[in-house]
Amino acid sequence: MNLVVGVGLRANTPYAELRALVDSALEEAGPGTVQLIVTVTNKEAQLRRLADDLKAELRAIPPSELAEQPVPNPSGHVEHLAGTPSVAEAAVLAAGAELLIPKRRSANATAAVGRLPAPGYAPADRDVVSRVIAERRDVRRGFLNLPIDNALLTRVLESAHRAPSVGLSQPWDFLVIRDLAARRKVHDLATAQRDAFAASLPDDRRARFDGLKIEAILDTPVNIAVTCDPGRGGRHVLGRHADPRTTWFSAAIAIQNLWLAARAEGLGVGWVSFFEPADVANVLDLPAHIELVGYLCVGYVEEFAAAPELVRSGWAKRRPLEWAIHHEEWGRRDASIVDDAIHAGQNAVPATGQRVRVIVGGDPTHLNQAEALVVDLGPDRPQADFGVLWRPARTPAEAVEFGVEIARDLALQGVGHLVVQLAEPSERAEALARGLKVGASACGLTHSSA
Fold first, then answer.
1. What is the pLDDT of residues 134-174, one digit of tens each?
2. What whole-number distance in Å separates Cα of residue 392 and Cα of residue 68?
3. Bridge pairing between strands 172-177 and 222-228
4. CA-CA distance, 246 to 252, in Å (whole number)?
5. What is the pLDDT of residues 180-194, one digit of tens each?
6. End-to-end CA separation in angstroms for the chain
7. CB neighbours of residue 22 within 10 Å
8. Phi/psi of residue 409, nearest 5 degrees
């Protein structure tokens, strides 16, 4: 346990008295190592010997900063003399520690002990972590015809293998594929699915999709199939019994570790999802109990782009962080989603892009048109279909919010015009339709009613 000792003392306090007070407080705190001695400015000289004896850093904090700390045992007398209601306790709190032992008094001094959190990285190291996260890219273009050193690839896979997993079950395996014939078979599967997806798109969206590259299966020297064994660890895996999905979540985290480690090594990674996992499993001759989670193309690249390809191409935009943060309960954000949308709509820049018909309260029979999107308001989850959004709003106000969110999310996916159609005459359906129009205006989308 890393400890901090806050000290307040009068001038000419005997060292023996100070040391006895601090030792008593530390004994009460229990085993630990003193990392910091903290006091108010201009008291450092009196505490130098104590810091040296305890092999701790000595730090002084101005009274104005100490006065901001919510100490549990304030003193008006101390505040009058020192400018803070408590030097010892405030010093512990100002150092970023949890107050463990409130202040103890001797004739001339006070001491309090706090528990410091485990240290983070130095600023330069934090910047490197943030950088590799920010610069990770799903790469599909610009791969070089260069081999990957086995030692480097092992380092990347070691990072993936260090991922956290439910119950330490480590359900992943990594199938490294260099064989060109096998990769051609997987490439054929991806090509067929690409054609099927293109055929499902509206004309304007299909034209934009035609310019996107979806895989680099044959362009990279290495493909890696990341698999999951749902039963690894046997029956009693800690943490899995209530939510079996944690097994697949674990494998996905391993992929993220691999991706970040590869970026740090200068390797590009592209995740290919344009195929049925069972078809790829057949090509790779995976055992029946093993499931494919991710198929990755790995290699050196010409460059790492400043922004994701889907952003650069105009296919989609990144969702702002503030849209994703709720406080204490769902829907409680720093600002009202509706008020924020209305305000944004006053300065919205007109958007261009595909046309989507949003059918509120409709059913899947409306999906015979590629531009249709159905919003199901019913209480029961419908069958999975990406053409149907399930939004069981509990109140009309929540329905408005859902409508705003749908419109904003569609705008991020390149939609430029919404046609809102009510298939269910209900208060919630009408509220969601209102939210769609507010959200569309906020994002510069044109909108109309069918």
1. 999 999 999 999 999 999 999 999 999 999 999 999 999 99
2. 46
3. antiparallel
4. 10
5. 999 999 999 999 999
6. 66
7. 24
8. -65, -35
Q: Is the pLDDT of residue 284 over 90?
A: yes
Cα–Cα distance between 360 and 233 in angstroms, integer? 45
Helix (H, G, I), strand (E, B) or coil at 154: helix
Instruction: Return d(Cα 226, Cα 292) in angstroms, integer.
Output: 6
pLDDT of the residue at 119: 87
Q: How much is the pLDDT for 135?
A: 96
pTM listed for this prediction: 0.86
Which residue is associated with the tokens 């296919």?
315
> Is the distance from CB of 114 to CB of 91 less than 8 angstroms?
no
Q: Which two tokens stand for residue 405?
A: 């969110």
Asked if residue 90 lies in contact with residue 71, where contact means CB atoms within 8 angstroms, the answer is yes
Q: From residue 423, give the alpha-carbon distance in Å to each of 202, 213, 265.
A: 22, 38, 53
Cα 139 to Cα 153, 259, 304, distances in angstroms: 17, 11, 8
What rounded mean pLDDT belongs to the chain?
A: 93
